[in-house]
Design goal:
Radius of gyration: 46 Å
CATH class of one domain: Mainly Beta
Keywords: Coiled coil
Protein name: TBC1 domain family member 2B
Structural class: alpha+beta
Shape: elongated
CATH topology of one domain: Methylamine Dehydrogenase, Chain H
CATH superfamily of one domain: YVTN repeat-like/Quinoprotein amine dehydrogenase
Number of helices: 33
GO molecular function: GTPase activator activity; small GTPase binding
Helix content: 25-40%
InterPro entries: PH-like_dom_sf, PH_domain, Quinoprotein_ADH-like_sf, Rab-GAP-TBC_dom, Rab-GAP_TBC_sf, Rab_GAP_TBC_domain
Largest sheet: 8 strands, antiparallel
Distance between the termini: 79 Å
Number of strands: 41
């Protein structure tokens, strides 16, 4: 510890001196003193402490002129001052402190002090010794201790000293003129103890000689010090060079990681092992070299351990290998960016701005802030800057409402919740959305997590603040995102600023009018600036709105990686909502070339969705936003927005009137079930209103039926006893949705799949979970065979194969890529596995896991195969959103039958007035020669499957002849679709085999949909030949002629029919499940009876008990 005031050096040093005979006896022993180098008097002063140094005189002063300075050996940081043969051993705390004292003292020993004060006082300076005055050099205290002479040696020594003294006096004149030659001695002995002249009286000439030597050695020491200083300067230069190279190396690493990120963005998500992802080995090698505990860790299997990023999001548990590598690259990129950031000019400017902003008011429009925010706000300053900007935005609102406004809203919440003044449906939606917000964040994973109650309070408080807007889905994301950096109250004001100040109040109203207007403005910009891209999307019947609508709804939260979203919000909070158009436009423009490479609608939509999720280069995005001209002037944007908003408001008004009229009609037509049909006990009302029956499965005895019910927050299983007609719950729950359930007969277990990629095994006898397994994706359907094989179709377009031999645990799944689309359904048929993805049916060999056959069900790829059901006639299939069913030959893989169920049942009018959800098939099952088909509007139709023994070739020829003679192409398409030709021409003709294309509700059946490789060109002979060929091939492919005949149409509620289950082998009993478990008519048992020679189905009573 040293200080330097007024050019005087001072500090606390450990001082040890010779015994009191030296004449400087006040520094006895060895202890610390506060030492001051007084350059004015050229003395080293000793004080007890620092305080005394400023008020008291020093205890001792050591003159420095002519003193010898050397280094000691007792301690590591010791140096020695030798003055008139007396050594002062002084120790510093550090080497740096020691060298500072030695270098300064070396300069002082050459300087003659000015005489101040009177002689004999402490201020007087030791004068130079006269040349004729002898100087006696005495041994040091340590040397005296080491000398141990005997009595005789001391006697002889005294005699020699007297004799030497006599000789010296006699020859004094001669000795003064002689030039004695002195051999060079080591620095320690010459400057330090001077052992070569100990016990001798030295003349002034000898003293001068010693002083000359001392000066020479001091010069050498000074030269060495200069060399040391040069070496230190060289080391500093080398260090600067090293830091420069280190910075350059970090830049190269960062660029390398960014390059790999760019190459991985367009990769497929089908990689099942991390090491198979391109460049993964190089990334893992780079990760190992960093050797940082904060970076992700990988196990021996190439899977990443659970890793939590600096925001609190958890990664690695359910991420695909490609997502894992993308995340690893992003972490490395952030690490290198952080290393480069602290020395950057941008960081220093933010440091200065953040330091001054609390003392000096600022404006949002000031140029300095606008330029700085373009490159983003550093993590350390983001919380401060966001809070200042938000407070600036809501300054007037806070002034109007009062500073304690938010706290007053919070205090009102308990009373309002008790009085139920907040709409129950809104409160329920908030509760559902709380855990949907950031499910991978540690603070949002459960209702007890740290920030979930905070999020709930903020959303409830906003409902009280603005009941007109109330709550809209998407607000939860914005508030939760704000809570990553802001406190609770500031997050509330952030929501107020976004919903009321950044956007107009219609942005988040019931119909989201403002959001729709923003979307139309954005599409207008794209049509003007990127006409080629928009034409490409129109040709593929793709739209931007399903992807980009959420961008304007939640300000890109949950649409881009967290690092990019933060940069977007930095800019948005300062520049306002108009910058969102430029950000969205730049994002589309950057990916334009990649989108144009897509050849079909499915690939296009996949690339549009991946465009945001995998994009990481926020610097490139913002450079494009701020370095390119605005697509449209601000005034024109505002005019466009107002025009579109006016149109949307008119459309919403008409829609509101239509909804009111429809509700009135629905109330008149509402079906009220009879008491004798369904009766459910009151205690079922305690269940959640949204516990929807997703699926059902019978036990082996078919007397107990398991009902798997799910809400948005949890799932539970209930068991229906068919004999007693009672429903009871089992003690098993999961906190997520369940998707499918199937009985595994080999081990008497139920297998249940969940939306969180889980597979659970439940013992049927004990009603308890046996084990659970984490899959790589969400299982949409489960199939199993008696040998223990289980096959699951997954959301990511793959199939999982596993084997279950015992109840302990299954084998690890084997994954097989099938499609880029989700595999919605699957069925094990003999040794083959049939599954449906997009518009194609895939047939796989169970032993080799190879695809043996594919069949296209319809030409449009977005029409996905939703059901595959085995039967004695073949394999039934249906398409999502369509009312058409197909029957496929099991070995020839040809269509035996294609029928529109609604048209055959005389309900074609519903297709014109209904929606895809209401008129689309939701479930199929064949039960003892009857095909049960359920729909989304609660209706189900029972059809008889009839084999026709007579030849149908005449009917086929009649249809073809009818088409040849007078029907147009559209007429024959209609005839093929309905199985009838125009009755005015040839009368009703029943086609034994009907080959028709799928025309979903609201779609026009195009001529070119007749064949994926042909289009209608106006030549009737060509079209006729194509139709005749397809009909003939279909007719020849079947061994029997089949058709469906509608037997019965039932509809007891308006809820979606989810499943049919055959119960009780000894009697015809079928269970239908639809809607929520505690709704009337949700669970109905249907029994068969003969009525006028016709088999009819009647409902029976079901009750619930705890």
């Amino acid at each position: 510890m040293e200080k330097q005031h007024n050019d005087d050096l001072s500090g606390l040093l450990h001082v040890k001196n010779a015994p009191s005979t030296s004449g400087l006896g006040k520094l006895k022993g060895s202890k610390k003193h506060w030492c001051v180098l007084n350059k004015r008097t050229n003395q080293l002063e000793f004080h007890k402490n620092e305080k005394e140094a400023s008020t008291e005189r020093p205890h001792e002063c050591v003159p420095l002129f002519g003193a010898g300075i050397s280094f000691g050996s007792s301690t590591e940081h010791e140096f020695i001052i030798n003055i008139r043969g007396v050594e002062y051993c002084i120790s510093a705390d550090t080497h740096k402190t020691m060298m500072k004292w030695v270098n300064t003292l070396q300069k002082q020993v050459k300087l003659k002090p000015a005489v101040t004060g009177s002689p004999g006082t402490r201020d007087s300076i030791l004068q130079a010794v006269p040349e004729d005055e002898p100087l006696e050099i005495k041994p040091t205290h340590e040397e005296k201790k080491t000398k141990k002479r005997s009595f005789f040696q001391r006697i002889f020594s005294r005699k020699r000293s007297r004799k030497d003294l006599t000789d010296h006096v006699a020859n004094a004149a001669q000795e003064t003129e002689e030039k004695r030659t002195v051999q060079a001695a080591p620095l320690r002995s010459v400057v330090g103890s001077m052992q070569d002249i100990t016990d001798k009286k030295v003349s002034c000439n000898e003293c001068n000689l010693m002083q000359g030597r001392n000066i020479y050695l001091n010069e050498q020491v000074q030269k060495l010090n200069e060399d040391c200083e040069n070496i230190v300067e060289d080391l500093r230069a080398y260090r600067r060079k090293y830091e420069s190279l280190e910075t350059e190396s970090t830049n190269i690493k960062r660029d390398f990681v960014c390059t790999i990120l760019d190459s991985l963005v367009d990769e497929d998500d089908s990689h099942k092992v991390t090491t198979t992802v391109p460049f993964s080995k190089k990334i893992l090698t780079l990760l190992e070299r960093e050797n940082n505990e904060t970076l992700p860790k990988f196990n021996s299997d190439g899977k990443m351990d659970l890793h939590e990023d600096r925001f609190g999001f958890q990664h690695g548990k359910r991420d695909s290998p490609l997502q894992t590598m993308l995340y690893t690259c992003q972490i490395l990129k952030h690490k290198y960016t952080t290393l480069l950031q602290e020395s950057s000019e941008h960081y220093k400017k933010w440091q200065t701005f953040a330091g001054n902003v609390n003392h000096h008011p600022f404006k949002l429009e000031e140029e300095n802030l606008l330029k700085l925010v373009q490159k983003g706000i550093p993590h350390e300053f983001r919380s401060t800057i966001w809070k200042l900007v938000i407070n600036k935005r809501v300054e007037e609102v806070v002034s109007e409402k009062g500073k304690n406004y938010y706290n007053s809203l919070i205090k009102r919440l308990p009373d309002l919740m008790e009085e139920e003044e907040i709409d129950g449906s809104i409160e329920k939606q908030i509760k559902i959305d709380l855990l949907r917000t950031f499910p991978t964040h540690k603070d949002f994973q459960s209702m007890d997590s740290g920030k979930v109650p905070v999020l709930q309070r903020v959303l409830r408080a906003y409902i009280l603040h603005n009941p007109e807007i109330s709550y809209c889905q998407g607000m939860n994301f914005m508030v939760a995102f704000g809570l990553l950096y802001l406190d609770e109250e500031t997050s509330f004001w952030l929501l107020v600023a976004v919903t009321e100040l950044f956007f107009c109040k219609t942005h988040y109203n019931t119909y989201l009018s403002g959001t729709q207007a923003n979307q139309r403005v954005f599409e207008a910009i794209c049509h003007q600036e990127m006409p080629g891209l928009m034409k490409h999307l129109d040709d593929l019947t793709c739209e931007l709105s399903p992807v980009t609508f959420n961008w304007f709804m939640t300000i890109f939260v949950d649409s881009l990686p967290i690092e990019v979203v933060l940069h977007v919000w930095d800019v948005f909070l300062v520049y306002g909502h108009s910058v969102l158009y430029k950000i969205a436009f730049s994002l589309i423009k950057i990916h334009q070339k990649n989108i144009l490479k897509s050849k079909d609608s499915l690939m296009t939509m996949r690339r549009l969705k991946k465009m945001g999720k995998n994009y990481h280069d926020n610097e490139q995005l913002m450079n494009d936003v701020f370095n390119t001209a605005d697509p449209l002037p601000a005034q024109q944007l505002l005019q466009l927005y107002n025009n579109y908003l006016e149109e949307i408001e008119e459309e919403n008004y008409k829609r509101k009137q239509e909804d009111e009229e429809y509700e009135k009609k629905r109330q008149k037509l509402k079906f009220t079930p009879k008491q004798m049909m369904v009766s459910i006990s009151d205690n079922l009302d305690a269940l959640e209103d949204d516990m929807i029956i997703k699926c059902a499965e019978c036990e082996a005895n078919r007397n107990n039926v398991w009902l798997c019910c799910s809400s948005d927050l949890m799932a539970q299983i209930f068991v229906l006893n068919v004999a007693s007609r009672n429903i009871v719950p089992i003690q098993w729950q999961v906190h997520c949705k369940c998707l499918d359930m199937v009985r595994f007969a080999r081990l008497n277990m139920m297998l249940v799949s969940t939306i969180k990629s889980g597979l659970h095994a439940i013992d049927i006898d004990k009603k308890t979970e046996v084990w659970s397994l984490q899959l790589s994706g969400t299982a949409l359907s489960i199939s199993c065979d008696p040998s223990g094989n289980v096959i699951l179709t997954l959301m990511d377009g793959t199939i999982a194969f596993l084997t279950i031999k015992t109840k302990e645990h299954p084998t690890q799944p084997t994954y097989v890529d099938i499609s880029r689309s989700p595999v919605l359904c699957g069925s094990l048929i003999d040794d083959l596995f049939w599954c449906g993805a997009a518009n194609t049916i895939f047939v796989l060999d169970v032993q080799t896991l190879e695809t043996t056959r594919t069949m296209r069900v319809c030409p449009v790829e977005r029409h996905s195969v939703s059901h595959l059901v085995d039967s004695k006639y073949g394999v039934w299939s249906s398409v999502e959103g369509s009312s058409v069913v197909h029957l496929w030959h099991k070995t020839k893989y040809t269509a035996l039958l294609t029928v529109d169920i609604l048209v055959e049942g005389g309900l074609a009018s519903e297709k014109k007035t209904g929606t895809l959800l209401s008129t689309g098939i939701t479930t199929i099952v064949e039960l003892k020669g009857k095909l049960w088909v359920g729909f989304g509007n609660g209706r189900f139709i029972i059809n008889d499957v009839i084999q026709k023994a007579e030849d149908t070739s005449d009917d086929l020829n009649d249809a073809i002849t009818s088409y040849k003679t007078s029907l147009s192409l559209n007429d024959i398409v209609g005839a093929i679709k309905t199985g009838r030709s125009d009755s005015k021409k040839k009368g009703p003709q029943k086609l034994g085999v009907i080959t028709c294309s799928h025309a979903l509700v609201g779609e026009k059946l195009d001529e070119k949909q007749l064949s994926p490789t042909h289009s209608h060109n106006g030549d009737d002979s060509t079209d006729f030949a194509m139709v005749e060929k397809r009909m003939s091939q279909a007719l020849e492919s079947g061994t029997d002629n089949l058709f469906l005949k509608m037997n019965q149409v039932q509809r007891i509620c308006e809820h979606r029919v989810n499943c049919f289950v055959q119960c009780r082998n000894d009697e015809k009993l079928v269970l239908t499940c639809m809607g929520a478990l505690n709704d009337d008519s949700s669970v109905v048992l249907w029994s068969s009876e003969k009525h006028d020679g016709r088999e009819m189905w009647f409902a029976q009573t079901v009750s619930y008990s705890e």
